[in-house]
Design a protein that fits this description.
The complex is a heterodimer of chains A (708) and B (289). Chain A has 17 helices and 28 strands. Chain A is an alpha+beta fold. Chain A folds into three domains: 7-28 and 413-550, Aldehyde oxidase/xanthine dehydrogenase, molybdopterin binding domain (Aldehyde Oxidoreductase, domain 4, 2-Layer Sandwich), CATH 3.30.365.10; 33-116 and 195-212 and 221-254, Aldehyde oxidase/xanthine dehydrogenase, a/b hammerhead (Aldehyde Oxidoreductase, domain 3), CATH 3.90.1170; 330-410 and 559-707, Aldehyde Oxidoreductase, domain 4 (2-Layer Sandwich), CATH 3.30.365.10. The model of chain A is unreliable at 703-708 (pLDDT under 50). In chain B, a hairpin with a 5-residue loop joins strand 12 (194-204) and strand 13 (210-218).
Chain lengths: 708, 289
């Protein structure tokens, strides 16, 4: 198989093209799961436990069943009858309208035996704290990893810094909540799902309902964000399927905003006790971390330490802690933004102790060759040399500062299949069972085919988001583009080969005598003898040409680097941080669509700022439930908080396609935190950096009250 | 997010609204802009049997000046207060403050009467009304009465309005030379309600000293309140930067303030000082013309 064309030969790929579904989305024509409204649709909803820990003694649904408009009720949806977080589903209803549904949900009479609970990590870790799981302690056994001799590493260091850092629980807060619209066609189940994995949901639901996989079809044409929270099949899908079976009608079950906040996934928090050391010439020698994190009733609350920089001797003990809260799920670069907050601030502290510039110090300890170049490129574009040498140098109420941090990511592409159907009129379909989670998959599918076949984009219909299409994996881990891009290229090449065979037959010459250029097949020895794309396709007569292809080695790779620079202004009267500018340098090999790739980086940075300054799940210690489970109290960054963002791509097209969705969200919080220190001389050890936390920290350093 | 069932009636005059109110009794609520009532109904925190829509009563939607008084009808929207030339010239601080309420959707629908009657502890108008020593006209079955702002705000979501009464207009003083006012607000990042909002009005005498000072604070406590310590400290004094700074050191005691996920009581107390200082400085500037 041939590799990708060189950048200069590309006419479609790597250009900045607007997404094909943009106009439909802007005009409200793109149909999301939430918008599905087939004739006879029933509206389903979940009754969830208001208690963080309780045994469900009795559910009396008799009043619910008597309400006109209620078509089906399920009271056995909880597998054990013991709930472990507020928001766990215990019953479900399907009704003829959203109004009846909401009335119906108020008519359940549930008897609970409430149990003691732990709402947050600090109370869960106390001695004699109530256990989340009766047979297991709240603090799990540690996972211990390391390299080298840590004690020796610290012993030969000239400077050591240590501290305790904390990050918060962040909820995914996808604009479209989790949910499905389902109906039965005989014994076949059709599911419209807001998902990052149409094939994964198909397999999961089939297993859960004990059905043959080929009797389940999952469709997701457009979806309103996932960020990792929609990688798995939901219990709500199976519940909707049961309600649809019982009623013989289509059923839509979307989680409410509050239910989504409580149970739809989150990024675990972290508490890190850390220590980092270096020699006086600026080489890192040792790192030690003892960390805790809660994934609620789930596990995998790890924080990826040490992070990015080369440290010969290190040890990391991590403890997952159970709390009575909704389970964490994969969230855009799991474990990494937390690690960045810790590691990059330690790096800055150590640099200051060694009297080195933070950038110089990083260059000495960063073994990634690409990032070495990116650091220098970014610093120049950003104007790093304008940075205050002395922290807190500005006098007066407003203080400006600059900071930086690095990013990294690992996974690459993997098995994906695709099909191309070419019609006699010269149009074609490209089908792949992947999904476009808002990142532009649909658009680059058409771009790859257009580039390979040298035909206009408008002749190509990219089709995805359907488990009836050839298999592709979940859209997670920034793997979609390096998986799907090569599969479409491979399918296009095979189509080309088949069309050339057809041309050879028609012209009566061996295929090896033919060449392909600009959508035309011609004879190498006599170029006037040729067939245009339209003529080629007409050779199909009344048939279509079906071509199958798949992901192959050599068109994608794994591993990206990157760095970000932040400039902030801190209002020392109120503690408010304003981010003025972010400069991001990113690499992802061959960029398929420069516009949507830039959008990915922009979005990642915005989510990073939101994490740094605004978002935090607040659990009420009295009731054990989340108190800000709505957008009015849980603030997510908006236009008002958006700074100037400059994205610089470091092109490495020779590496093939690599994903970029996750890495640029990693360093933003740390670059801001380091900029806040540079502005004020005060280090923030806890996220998010809200005005009251900043002011408290400033007051501790006697800045507050000193006004111009 | 769907209200309970309710009966909806549109009232075309104040008389009709009052009649319906007395007829329907406790289960009835007035609907003006709907930006407090409807969300509460959608969350089923409020489930009125009858909603009396007064938003079409034209008599309550006008602004007019009468000598030294500026009368604003109860149904005047925040957006109208923000943009009205009459308000801008007679009492500019009101326009400034109205521009800081919520977002354009809220400002286009929400009304001054609705905001005051609802009496949210973090709403902006209570601070302005109290600081500017406004008067609230309440109309009930037995006619209209005037309530001074100092007597109107009773507690959290609680006013001096009696059952069966409705606000028909709010009267503010026209600010003349020598008097200036300003409003400073620290907004919640999502809802834009005041985490703390401070309104200040200063009148200077011939020698440039403060003859009267009023400071009102919203968002910080369970209800809007006057910062009497600050007012007393500055009255009779020359309001230079030092005097204002001294007077606003300890505006509020954290023990009296609210603590919630948006801000601790200590942080609110700090904001009371910072925002009072800024509001007073700007009010003095305005008074000096």
């Amino acid at each position: 198989m041939a590799g990708w064309k060189s950048l200069k030969d590309m006419t479609v790929l790597s250009k900045p093209l607007p997404r094909l579904d943009g106009p439909d989305k802007v005009a409200g024509q793109a149909k999301y799961t939430h918008d599905m409204h087939p004739k006879g649709l029933l509206y389903a909803g979940l009754l969830v436990s208001p208690h963080p820990a309780a045994r469900v003694v009795k559910i009396d649904a008799s009043k619910v069943r008597r309400l006109p408009g209620v078509k089906a009720v399920l009271t056995d949806v909880h597998p054990t009858g013991t709930v472990r977080y507020a928001g766990e589903e215990i019953a479900a209803v399907a009704a003829t309208s959203p109004e009846v549904l909401e009335d119906a949900l108020e008519l359940f009479e549930v008897e609970y035996e409430t149990l003691p609970f732990v709402a947050d990590i600090d109370s869960a870790m106390q001695e004699n704290a109530p256990r989340v799981f009766a047979n297991r302690p709240n603090i799990r056994d540690p996972r211990v990893r390391g390299e080298g001799d840590v004690d020796a590493g610290f012993a030969r260091a000239d400077a050591v810094v240590e501290g305790e850092y904390r990050t918060q629980v962040q909820t995914h807060s996808t604009l479209e909540t989790h949910g499905s619209m389902v109906y039965w066609e005989g014994d076949e189940l059709v599911i419209y799902d807001s998902t990052q994995a149409v094939h994964g949901v198909r397999e999961g639901v089939a297993k859960f309902l004990d059905m043959p996989v080929n009797k389940v079809r999952v469709v997701c044409k457009h979806m309103g964000a996932g960020f990792g929270s929609k990688l798995q099949p939901g219990r709500y899908t199976a519940i909707a399927a049961r309600l649809a079976k019982e009623t013989g009608a289509p059923v839509k079950l979307m989680l409410t905003r509050k239910q989504d906040f409580l149970g739809g996934g989150n990024r675990p928090n972290s508490i890190s006790h850390v220590k980092l050391a270096a020699t006086k010439d600026g080489k890192l020698t040792a790192f030690y971390a003892k960390t805790y994190g809660t994934a609620g009733i789930g596990t995998n609350a790890g924080i990826r330490l040490p992070f990015i920089y080369t440290i010969p001797n290190w040890k990391h003990e991590h403890y997952d802690v159970f709390t009575n809260a909704g389970p964490a799920r994969a969230f855009r670069a799991p474990g990494c933004p937390q690690a960045s907050f810790v590691m990059e601030q330690l790096m800055d502290e150590l640099a200051e102790k060694l009297n080195m510039d933070p950038l110089e110090f990083r260059l000495k300890n960063d073994s990634n060759a690409t990032r070495q170049k990116e650091w220098r490129l970014g610093a120049k574009k950003f104007g790093w040399q304008r940075r205050h040498k002395k922290p807190g140098a500005d006098t007066g109420r407003y203080k400006r500062g600059m900071g930086l941090a690095a990013s990294i990511w690992w996974p690459g592409g993997r098995g994906t299949k695709a099909t191309m159907t070419i019609y006699p009129d010269g149009t074609l379909d490209v089908k792949c069972g992947t999904q476009d989670i808002g990142t532009g998959t649909r658009t680059y599918m058409a771009m790859v085919a257009a580039e390979e076949l040298d035909i206009p984009m408008k002749r190509i219909r990219p089709m995805l988001g359907d488990s009836n299409f050839p298999k592709s994996g979940a859209s997670g881990g920034s793997t979609t583009t390096p998986s799907v891009g090569p599969a479409i290229k491979n399918t296009s090449e095979r189509a080309k080969t088949k069309l050339m065979d057809l041309a050879a037959q028609f012209l009566g010459v061996p295929a090896t005598d033919l060449a392909w250029d600009s959508g035309t097949v011609y004879m190498k020895t006599n170029p006037v003898k040729k067939l245009t794309w339209d003529e080629l396709c007409q050779l199909l007569g009344t048939e279509t040409l079906e071509v199958h292809g798949q992901w192959v080695e050599g068109l994608s790779s794994r591993g990206v680097a990157g760095c970000q620079f932040a400039e902030v202004t801190v209002d020392t009267w109120t503690g408010q941080i304003q981010v003025n500018k972010i400069v991001a340098v990113a690499d992802c090999g061959l960029i398929l669509n420069r516009l949507t790739t830039e959008s990915q980086v922009n979005g990642a940075i915005l989510q990073g700022i939101s994490y740094a300054l605004l978002e935090e799940r607040h659990m009420d210690p009295e009731t054990g439930t989340m108190v800000n489970a709505n957008y009015g109290d849980y603030k997510i960054l908006g236009a008002k908080e958006t700074p100037a963002i400059e994205v610089i791509f470091y092109d490495e097209p020779e590496r093939g396609v690599i994903g970029i969705g996750e890495p640029p969200t990693i360093p933003t919080n740390a670059a801001i935190a380091n900029a806040v220190y540079n502005a004020t001389g005060v280090r923030m050890y806890e996220l998010p950096m809200t005005p009251d936390r900043v002011l408290t920290a400033l007051e501790a350093h006697q800045f507050a009250g000193k006004e111009d | 997010m769907i209200p309970n069932n309710f009966e909806y009636i549109r009232a075309n005059s104040v008389q009709e609204a009052l009649q319906l109110l007395s007829q329907k009794g406790d289960g009835a609520r007035l609907l003006a802009g709907g930006h407090s009532l409807i969300p509460a109904m959608k969350l089923r925190l409020n489930a009125p049997e009858t909603v009396i829509d007064i938003s079409g009563i034209q008599d309550l939607a006008s602004i007019h000046r009468d000598g030294g008084r500026l009368h604003i009808g109860a149904l005047v929207t925040h957006r109208t207060v923000e943009t009205s030339d009459e308000v801008k010239s007679s009492c500019p601080v009101l326009s400034e403050a109205a521009a800081l309420i919520g977002d354009p959707l809220v400002r286009n629908r929400g009304t001054i009467g609705g905001s005051l009657a609802h009496c949210d502890p973090a709403a902006d108008y209570p601070a302005l009304t109290l600081c500017l020593d406004a008067e609230i006209e309440a109309t009930g079955p037995s006619g209209s009465r005037t309530i001074a702002a100092d007597d109107f705000f009773v507690g959290m979501f609680e006013t001096a309005l009696q059952p069966g009464e409705m606000i028909t207009r709010v009267t503010f003083p026209v600010l003349t030379r020598g008097t200036g006012a300003a409003y400073e607000k620290f907004s919640h990042p999502a809802s834009r309600f005041a985490v703390v909002g401070v309104a200040a009005m200063v009148t200077l005498d011939g020698s440039g000293n403060c003859s009267s000072v009023r400071v009102a604070i919203t968002g910080a406590g369970p209800s809007v309140f006057r910062a009497t310590k600050v007012e007393q400290a500055l009255t009779g004094k020359a309001p230079d930067e030092q005097a204002i700074s001294d007077a606003t050191q300890d505006v509020a005691d954290p023990a009296d303030l609210m603590s919630d996920i948006s801000a601790s009581a200590e942080y609110r107390a700090h904001l009371c000082s910072v925002l009072s200082r800024r509001a007073l400085q700007r009010a003095v500037q305005a008074a000096r013309g």
